Amino acid sequence: MNRLSEFIVGLIFGLGLILSGMTDPGKVIGFLDLFGSWDPSLAFVMGGAIFVGLFAFALAKKRTTNFLGQALHLPKSNQIDKRLVLGSLVFGAGWGLAGFCPGPAWVTMASGNTKALIFVIAMIAGMIAYEFIQRTQRR
What we know:
Pfam families: DUF6691. The protein is built from 6 helices and no strands. By secondary structure, it is an all-alpha fold.
């Protein structure tokens, strides 16, 4: 049942990305082009996600289990450190250069978009490189 619910939630998320235009790199880059032909429509998508998230996290903080009865683990750290800032900068630079962030890139790649495929491969390579560096630094 858990895998089925994960699939259904992922499918709904992917469909939401497609319907909102988040899978179109041109729309994302248009949103980031503040001094050119700015497209504010993605601000409404993000605002809607933040609005839903506020209520979802408020509800989740009051619960100890998720809706399927499993343990609910919310992040406990609220510290802003160097790793968070650097990660945010890398994420933002990648989003601005490619017009993709991870979720929409996977959805767009599934539609056969070559640029999204290259982005996902580079993203996975970056994750592997990060893990390798972290493991070598711990030794």
